[in-house]
UniProtKB/TrEMBL annotation:
A Pfam family the protein falls into: PhyH
Source taxon at top rank: Eukaryota
Organism expressing this protein natively: Aspergillus puulaauensis
Family annotation (InterPro entries): Phytyl_CoA_dOase-like
SUPFAM superfamilies: Clavaminate synthase-like
Protein name: Uncharacterized protein
Length: 115
């Protein structure tokens, strides 16, 4: 068993220049900054799909303008888990963040990142 989040091949993929270049073109950011927080999800046959969710919840260490990327490591079938965006969901995300900020106003940045 390996600790994938510390494996060199995984760290190299996170620092991939093509991915960084795409992010720069997509967002207009000159120097995208990689947060030192990554998540790796493995699709297990016959498991349930990941439900609709808001990625900022998992990336508390970053600003609300963070961009997350879903990068498959091999071919993915539609049934096996492509990425879908929920149209009009920006309002849901903004409401979620407003509520979080109101409820967590007394937490330190470190405590917020652990939630």
């Amino acid at each position: 068993m390996i600790s994938v989040h510390e494996a060199q091949f995984y760290l190299d993929s996170c620092a991939n220049q093509e991915l960084r270049d795409f992010i720069s073109r997509f967002t207009g950011w000159e120097k995208p900054h990689l947060l030192q927080r990554t998540m790796l999800r493995a699709f297990v046959p016959d498991s349930e799909l990941t439900p609709v969710h808001f990625d900022q919840i998992y990336l508390r260490a970053g600003p609300p303008t963070s961009l997350t990327a879903w990068v498959p490591t091999r071919d993915v079938s539609l049934e096996g888990g492509g990425l879908m965006y929920l149209e009009g969901s920006i309002d849901i995300g903004q409401q979620t963040e407003t509520e979080f900020a109101r409820n967590a106003h007394n937490l330190t940045d470190e405590e917020r990142a652990r939630i």
